[in-house]
Design brief:
Blueprint lengths: L5 H4 L5 H14 L5 E2 L11 H12 L12 H14 L10 E4 L4 H10 L7 E6 L3 H9 L3 E6 L10 H7 L4 E7 L11 H11 L6 E5 L24 E6 L12 E4 L4 H10 L6 H12 L3 H21 L15 E2 L4 H7 L4 H12 L1 E2 L1 E2 L14 E4 L4 H22 L1
Parallel strand pairs: 1-10, 3-4, 3-5, 5-6, 6-7
Antiparallel strand pairs: 2-8, 7-8, 9-12, 11-12
Helix pairs in contact: 3-10, 4-10, 7-8, 11-14
């Protein structure tokens, strides 16, 4: 049988889906599982968005669109992204619509680095695993910048300065963050912009898919810092704000790279689903009541899960500033039950207590000196949060007695 390429063999994955397969297998076998492993809203898309999709289907919106997206959505997305980011000058021609925001990670790397040339991409660790996977797959060099618990899962801008070399071509920033829920505040982002000022060759990929789910103060993008808008690729989309994960609509904005991204889409997807584009147009331009209700619900759930986790033996959890993830430190809990690390803790929690979470190693190499962490997605009902955390607490208490 012919062999597959080394690139394909070494391609990374998103372990949330791997763990989800484990969870589904256990559930099919009759296990009662409370799952916190998938990061998607547990709400339906707003009614007006659903109706817009139905109108598109019945109106014959079935064919290809321009690769960059329908004009109406590009115009609306430009106004929307500008409004969320303090009035940034974003034009419709700067915006490209993709089949979700995720493809723009690859397009950004492909457009700013050359395969095998030693070009470096700095990315957050822990971070969305597709960053590292795509950097390596496209022949660039992954350079992690570590997020620190003591800084609220931000990084010290001085650390960034120490990582920049003549080969650095792209910096990936994510705020609010997956998996930690941490945020990069305005002061930090302005310090990053100042560090980048003498390095005009470096692009910035600003993954801001959770921009509407920032809970502490007004959202601020690095593109708003002086001199940054033209070199920043702003990435946002419909998935998280309007519970449209499966509709696959993302937006990216950059004046120089929009035509390049358009060519990548022509070469890969041809275009995003026309039906989903018309639905996203309604999401962006229509009433925002449902989006605001979801945001309020996530904020209430955040406060609930953080309070409950901090009552669990051996667990400490910072208050996340955005998204819908909690990143509790379980170092002491591991010690109490005799687990070697967070991955053993995660597996035992699933198989012995029926609670599904992800371990820190699913989001990059463990940060030296930062201990053990797991990720909870609190895009789950309050009842599930209460039930799951109670099971976790009982699991630790029971196994602490056994270990003693």
């Amino acid at each position: 049988m012919p062999e597959i390429s080394r690139r394909a063999a070494n391609l990374g994955t998103e372990n949330a889906f791997v763990v989800l397969a484990e969870v589904n297998a256990l559930a099919r076998a009759g296990a009662d599982i409370v799952s916190f492993c998938i990061g998607q809203p547990d709400f339906p898309a707003p009614e007006n968005v659903q109706e817009a999709a139905i109108r598109a289907v019945r109106g014959g919106k079935h064919g290809y669109t321009p690769s960059a997206g329908i004009d109406e959505l590009r115009e609306a997305a430009a106004k929307y992204m500008s409004r969320v980011r303090g009035g940034l000058p974003i034009r419709a021609e700067d915006v490209v619509v993709g089949a979700g925001a995720k493809p723009f990670i690859a397009y950004a790397i492909l457009s700013t680095t050359d395969h095998g040339a030693g070009d470096e991409v700095i990315y957050p660790n822990p971070g969305f695993p597709i960053y590292e996977s795509q950097i390596a797959a496209h022949g660039a060099v992954p350079v992690p910048i570590h997020l620190r618990e003591a800084r609220g899962f931000a990084f010290d801008p001085a650390d960034l300065e120490g990582l920049i070399t003549p080969r650095t071509k792209l910096l990936i920033l994510n705020t609010p963050q997956n998996p930690t829920g941490g945020t990069l505040d305005r002061k930090t982002l302005e310090a990053i912009a100042a560090i980048l000022k003498p390095h005009p060759r470096i692009w910035v990929y600003a993954d801001e898919i959770y921009s509407r789910l920032a809970y502490e103060g007004e959202f601020f993008s690095i593109a708003q810092a002086p001199g940054m808008v033209e070199r920043t690729i702003i990435s946002d989309g419909a998935s998280k704000t309007w519970a449209m994960t499966g509709w696959r609509i993302g937006f990216a904005a950059n004046p120089a790279l929009a035509p390049v991204f358009t060519r990548w889409i022509t070469n890969t997807d041809s275009c995003a689903s026309q039906i989903s584009q018309w639905a996203a147009l309604e999401a962006v331009t229509g009433p925002q009541d449902a989006a605001e209700r979801m945001r309020r619900s996530f904020l209430e759930r955040r406060d609930l899960i953080v309070r409950l986790l901090n009552e669990v033996p051996g667990v400490k959890c910072l208050v996340p500033g955005g998204a819908f993830y909690a990143w509790p430190n379980v170092t002491e809990a591991c010690r109490l039950i005799g687990a070697a690390d967070s991955e053993e803790f995660r597996k035992r929690l699933l198989n012995e207590a029926g609670v599904a979470v992800l371990a820190d190693i699913h989001f990059g190499s463990r940060v030296p000196g930062e201990g053990q962490h797991v990720r909870f997605s609190y895009a789950a009902s309050k009842e599930a949060i209460e039930k799951g955390v109670a099971r976790m607490a009982e699991f630790i208490r029971r196994n602490t007695k056994k270990a003693a």
